[in-house]
């Protein structure tokens, strides 16, 4: 069972005094942002999530199967272009 308000309490976030929250650093930002979103919505708050890059998202086995079965179609993986993955939850 999720306990709403847990991370808000743990981080001592005064959401009335500071209505805008910025999350920076390496590792765990997406998970924290989504959890804070759940807690704030449970408290009846309106939430907007924005990013300057991209955010990971939950994937399932069907998603991974589709990606694995179509990697050769990707210009990134066929070597036609150089760059980085857009989905950090997919480790291919």
Structure commentary:
By secondary structure, this protein is mainly alpha-helical. It is 35% helix and 0% strand. It has four helices and no strands. The longest helix is centred in the middle third of the chain and has 14 residues, at 29-42. The model has no long low-confidence stretch (mean pLDDT 77).
The portion of residues forming beta strands comes to: under 5%
Question: Number of helical segments?
Answer: 4
Query: Tell me about the biggest sheet?
Result: none
**Helix percentage range:** 25-40%
Q: Outline, from the CA principal axes? A: elongated
Distance from first to last alpha carbon: 33 Å
Give the ordered list of helices and strands.
HHHH
Radius of gyration: 18 Å
- The beta-strand count equals 0
- Uncertain runs are none
* Helix and strand composition category: mainly alpha
Task: Describe, in short, the structure shown.
This protein is an all-alpha fold. It has helices at 6-10, 29-42, 61-69, 75-78. The protein is elongated and about 50 Å long.
State the main characteristics.
35% helix, mainly alpha, 4 helices
């Amino acid at each position: 069972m999720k306990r709403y308000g847990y991370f808000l309490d743990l981080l001592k976030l005064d959401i009335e005094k500071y209505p805008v929250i910025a999350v920076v650093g390496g590792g765990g930002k997406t998970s924290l942002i989504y959890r804070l979103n759940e807690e704030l919505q449970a408290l009846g708050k309106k939430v907007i999530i924005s990013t300057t890059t991209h955010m990971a998202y939950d994937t399932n086995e069907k998603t991974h199967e589709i990606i694995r079965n179509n990697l050769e179609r990707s210009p990134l993986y066929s070597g036609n272009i150089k760059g980085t993955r857009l989905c950090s939850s997919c480790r291919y």
